[in-house]
UniProtKB/TrEMBL annotation:
PROSITE patterns: ADENYLATE_KINASE. Belongs to the adenylate kinase family. SUPFAM superfamilies: P-loop containing nucleoside triphosphate hydrolases (SSF52540). Residues 157-192 form the Adenylate kinase active site lid domain. It comes from Amborella trichopoda. It comes from the Eukaryota. This is adenylate kinase. One of its GO terms (molecular function) is ATP binding.
Length: 244
């Protein structure tokens, strides 16, 4: 919204809406939540629901890194150096970017972390940083789903590139196989949605990220969500987990 000086240029409706949102949020308990689950388990569907219901900010580390690089923040400059060399951005850098983001007013009530931590080492660094701030992770939502269900979910996805319309060969098929309902143009499958790519991503998830769930289980903050259920039922499970 810009600095306070520019507030007079903001339409009244927008100001009132933001004021009402903040008043509603003032009574919400603060929460720091991590979403863990394999690709396609529905984390992206649930995070906006959690964000709005609990007034949290959504920290997607990939997006935050790109934003820091574009904004040329000190951490962003370091991250760009690593990326330009083809190296992975260090865990300390990512945690530093999360640390910076947490200071924003939108993160006042806490955050949802998605896509991080992916390893136990990252989880330990994140916990160290939070401890310095006098906070900790309140809940880790483990989106549990069978690999076979995921494969059916993901490899059946087809997209109409120019409009972004999505179809599923089993759950939401187009009227004519392989063609968009509106334009009749061919549908494509994203590179990430093929069985081979999914297999390697799932292997990486089981190898690296499942130990993160065990790490947080020892701290008694993990709640398992049955991610194969329809989205509304998953939302109910998520809300139940976050209210306990």
């Amino acid at each position: 919204m810009g600095s306070a000086a520019n507030l007079e240029d903001v339409p009244s409706n927008d100001l009132m809406a933001e004021l009402m949102r903040r008043m509603k949020c003032a009574n919400k308990p603060s929460k720091r939540v991590i979403l863990v689950g394999p690709p396609g388990s529905g984390k992206g569907t649930q995070s906006p629901v959690i964000k709005d219901e609990y007034c949290l900010c959504h920290l997607a580390t990939g997006d935050m890194l790109r934003a820091a690089v574009v904004a040329k923040t000190p951490l962003g400059i370091k991250a760009k150096e690593a990326m330009d060399k083809g190296e992975l951005v260090s865990d300390d850098l990512v945690v530093g970017i999360i640390d910076e983001a947490m200071k924003k007013p939108s993160c006042q009530k806490g955050f949802i972390l998605d896509g991080f931590p992916r390893t136990v080492a990252q989880a330990e660094k994140l916990d160290e940083m939070l401890e310095k701030q006098g906070t900790k992770i309140d809940k880790v939502l483990n989106f549990e789903i069978d690999d076979k269900i995921l494969e059916e979910r993901i490899t059946g996805r087809w997209i109409h590139p120019s409009s972004g319309r999505t179809y599923h060969s089993k759950f939401a098929p187009p009227k004519v196989l392989g063609l968009d309902d509106v334009t009749g143009e061919p549908l494509i499958q994203r590179k990430d949605d093929t069985a081979e790519v999914l297999k390697s991503r799932l292997e990486a998830f089981h190898r690296q990220t499942e130990p993160v769930i065990n790490y947080y289980s020892k701290k008694n903050v993990v709640a398992t969500v049955h991610a194969e259920k329809p989205p509304k039922e998953v939302t109910t499970e998520v809300e139940k987990a976050l209210s306990s």
